[in-house]
Request: fold
Amino acid sequence: MEVKRLPALSDNYIFVLYDPQQKVAATVDPAEAKPVLKLLNELNAELVAIFNTHHHFDHVGGNRELKKQYPQATVYGSAEDKGRIPHQEVFLKEGDTVTFAGRSGEVFFVPGHTSGHIAYYFPPVNGEDAGELFAGDTMFVGGCGRLFEGTPHQMVESLGKLKNLPDKTRLWCAHEYTLKNYQFAISVEPNNPVVQQRYQQVQQARKEGKATVPSLLEEEKRSNPFLRWEDENLQTVAQSQDPVKTFGHLRSMKDRF
Ligand code: ZN
Ligand code: FE
Reply:
């Protein structure tokens, strides 16, 4: 299974999963249909699945047009998003499994950004080095999603589930927010050498016009402030030893950043 990354709208990424043997493809969070249709055409692949992480328009905006062109494609989303995702046919819950081209993906219920948000994780198979995590707007490179429909408590639980996945997991998040995220991270921890180094790498990559997605989960565990609620530095900033309060404090700082 190959993963292709397509830039869309102002700062979204759409992902296309592609199996070259079977010539089939799936898409994760199609913000718009056009770039997906173009790629399917180039690959001469048939679209068999649309995996949505949550109901926001910049994640489901392409569903209608894609379904029109590929009526046989199955549209997946969260059970909690019933009525909010165009053409949704499969209503997923924590622990459910999805399949694509003989591969199984695990579904995680990760509310916080929205009340129904889910993530899809495809573990590595036969000799692959890493699994693929499609986290939508829950975990970003160096950041996390805003709490539109959830609480810090929910988000800590949700991010905690994703944090438990293997270090080598590739994190495919739905936005290129990384530079802004590390501008925030360095403002919170100006003396943290890990964050300093990461901030430099990210600045360099963006200067060269390179995407920062995917990143590795081990990198996120080291340098993403929104996964480090047990960290003394960050607990000092938040003036709390409580993980949820520490996370919540950082999240509201970021909202005002
Ligand atoms: Zn969103
Ligand atoms: Fe989004």
About this structure: The chain has one domain: 2-256. The mean pLDDT is 97.
